[in-house]
Amino acid sequence: MDLAKKILKTNFASLQVLQYVHDFGSFSVAAERLGLTQSTVSYTIARLRSIFKDPLFAREGNRVVPTQRCRVIVGHISGLLAEFEGLTSEPDFNPAAAEGAITISCNHYERMTILPEFIPKIRKQAPNLRLRFMTSSALGEDQLKRGECDLLIGPVQLTGDHIFKRHLLSDAYVYVMDADNPLASRPLDLDEIRSAHHLVVQFSGGWQPLYIDALKSHGLSLSPMVELSDYGDIAAYLKGSDLIACMPRRLASTLEPALLCVEVPIPVPLEIDLFWTTRTHHSKLHNWVRQTLAESI
């Protein structure tokens, strides 16, 4: 019997269990998300192993990792389950009656520039909807594909048959410094950037701001005087000092007026996109949340 026929002989609930174990890498988490007991999930996977003649998962440390055949099966059923969910959902979506939880992965930039508009909209229109935010660092793609988050926001590039994308905003980098810094009186050139005293944000997980590579392409490697792990309290270190820091314009606009912005001589665009997977693509709730997020820019 070929794969398509085996899938058709299996009920939707069992296939959903398979997808959740695949996405979350855990029997217990899948059981919790689906409102089932762990023994029910284990029994379902055992039955699917018999149907598909494949182990489906192998344990590695604290996670279960899908076999190659399991990945193929989930690739076939993801769209099918999403479409079925769309068919069985209420024809008219009412945000005021919406319940459940949405998990969004992003970083400091998105939390400061997008969420302040987004969260009040959700609270006003869907007061029973719970929001959970997690830090993506450089792990956002894995978080999304494992089902740890429903949405990923950031300046990243993801591809795949089961990944969907919506552009949210375009930004650019500027240099920020104290208003009394001598460099604040004019546009900077590359020689001034080379000799300046830099405060640089080096994010955990290996991801670095896009302007770093742009400067390197012009033969300029920075030797920062101060390094931080995020933008959180950057204003306190720039105010009254000779330090300069390169950061996105929208984020810089949230800092206090005592700091000034100066254009970067090399254009460095910053594109912020929204990503999700087939798991939530057809959900009316998730579609509304995505639209509300886009309208919060």
Automatic annotation (TrEMBL):
<keyword id="KW-0678">Repressor</keyword>
<dbReference type="InterPro" id="IPR037402">
    <property type="entry name" value="YidZ_PBP2"/>
</dbReference>
<dbReference type="Pfam" id="PF00126">
    <property type="entry name" value="HTH_1"/>
</dbReference>
<comment type="similarity">
    <text>Belongs to the LysR transcriptional regulatory family.</text>
</comment>
<dbReference type="InterPro" id="IPR036388">
    <property type="entry name" value="WH-like_DNA-bd_sf"/>
</dbReference>
<dbReference type="InterPro" id="IPR050389">
    <property type="entry name" value="LysR-type_TF"/>
</dbReference>
<dbReference type="InterPro" id="IPR036390">
    <property type="entry name" value="WH_DNA-bd_sf"/>
</dbReference>
<dbReference type="InterPro" id="IPR005119">
    <property type="entry name" value="LysR_subst-bd"/>
</dbReference>
<dbReference type="InterPro" id="IPR000847">
    <property type="entry name" value="LysR_HTH_N"/>
</dbReference>
<keyword id="KW-0238">DNA-binding</keyword>
<feature type="domain" description="HTH lysR-type">
    <location>
        <begin position="10"/>
        <end position="67"/>
    </location>
</feature>
<protein>
    <recommendedName>
        <fullName>HTH lysR-type domain-containing protein</fullName>
    </recommendedName>
</protein>
<dbReference type="Pfam" id="PF03466">
    <property type="entry name" value="LysR_substrate"/>
</dbReference>
<keyword id="KW-0804">Transcription</keyword>
<keyword id="KW-0536">Nodulation</keyword>
<keyword id="KW-0805">Transcription regulation</keyword>
<dbReference type="GO" id="GO:0003700">
    <property type="term" value="F:DNA-binding transcription factor activity"/>
</dbReference>
<dbReference type="GO" id="GO:0003677">
    <property type="term" value="F:DNA binding"/>
</dbReference>
